[in-house]
């Protein structure tokens, strides 16, 4: 906040207008700490850049420059409008405009369309404050037009309803129902990012009810899958858990949701956790083979509660690298050449140690190995 105000001071001293805008104003009025603060200004990107020592061109074509100051990053965006939308998903071009009000008009919801001056005065041309008070999400202007311009806004309305625990204004909601099919034109990355945010909302059940009620579930990729019972869902702050919960409830596999383009890390976490939910018993080998995160996700979703970290910690070893022997030892003891047999024998030893049958001690392993190996060959 203080950094943003410093940025505004600098811009104003150079003769430009500048305000805090969007989500930060909303969050401040709600008494929450905004996680990022955006500034809108009459200065053009090039004019912003000369005023600050350190800037990054994060979205210069859209008029945005990131100003780095006091260890913070403040996005400064030139007042702009998004002129025409021919495909319901992105403006054909952005146009810089002269007034703050025009800039606020292009924003999605009244609660996101307020600005604040450096001396904390609120500029609220669309009744955002009133809607905040009444806990309502309402499109700025004509909802039909707004959703035709950018259909993602429909999903954003639903996301904010859960994030803030607000209702969606009836006219706005009816418009979403009428335009739901337009969601098909939105890039899947943008959809996933909003769905991920829904999954970590405290009132996500509200978003999920709206998602169904708005008929968006009919038009989202595998949208029907979202229509599960979310009553037992509690977020742990990690969106991946939402996807796991959904697959587990629906008895589906990761491939069913792969259209949402997960990172390799997310994919692995979901697949491994699902695998765990399908196991009847978890023994030492399970705790050894799966990461704590995978175990935790799976146990949350199945409702098995245990001190998983403690069980994992008590294993004789945590990974193969802790084994007291390696392939070279086995080669030496057997007198045989390296080959696929090594992997088999290392895993045999690893299992015995993990199960506590054999101690992780080089001499003891050697005794066992020499006995077993020679009786096998
Ligand atoms: P949060 O960061 O808490 O998710 P936010 O309101 O800051 O919420 P962002 O997605 O960061 O949301 O967007 C910042 C601001 O930009 C919004 O408050 C809104 O004014 C505007 N905005 C963002 N996306 C759109 C959109 N698709 N259509 C219109 N305005 C938008
Ligand atoms: Mg934001």
TrEMBL record:
Q: Which residues form the tRNA nucleotidyltransferase/poly(A) polymerase RNA and SrmB- binding domain?
A: 165-220
List ligand-binding residues for CTP: 26, 107-108, 112, 150, 153, 156, 159, 163
Q: Which GO terms describe its molecular function?
A: metal ion binding; nucleotide binding; nucleotidyltransferase activity; tRNA binding
Q: Which UniProt keywords apply?
A: Magnesium, Metal-binding, Nucleotide-binding, Nucleotidyltransferase, RNA-binding, Transferase, tRNA processing
Does the keyword Metal-binding belong to this entry? Answer: yes
What the entry lists under SUPFAM superfamilies is as follows: Nucleotidyltransferase, Poly A polymerase C-terminal region-like
User: Could you say which cofactors this protein requires?
Assistant: Mg(2+)
Q: Where is the Poly A polymerase head domain?
A: 18-138
Show the InterPro entries listed in the entry: Bact_CCA-adding_enz_type3_sf, CCA-adding_enz_C, NT_sf, PolA_pol_head_dom, PolyA_RNA-bd
CCA-adding enzyme C-terminal domain location: 254-368
Instruction: State the source organism's domain of life.
Output: Bacteria
One GO biological-process annotation of the entry reads: tRNA processing
- Identify its protein family: Belongs to the tRNA nucleotidyltransferase/poly(A) polymerase family.
Stated name of the protein:
CCA-adding protein
Q: Write down the species.
A: Planococcus halocryophilus
Species classification: Bacteria, Bacillati, Bacillota, Bacilli, Bacillales
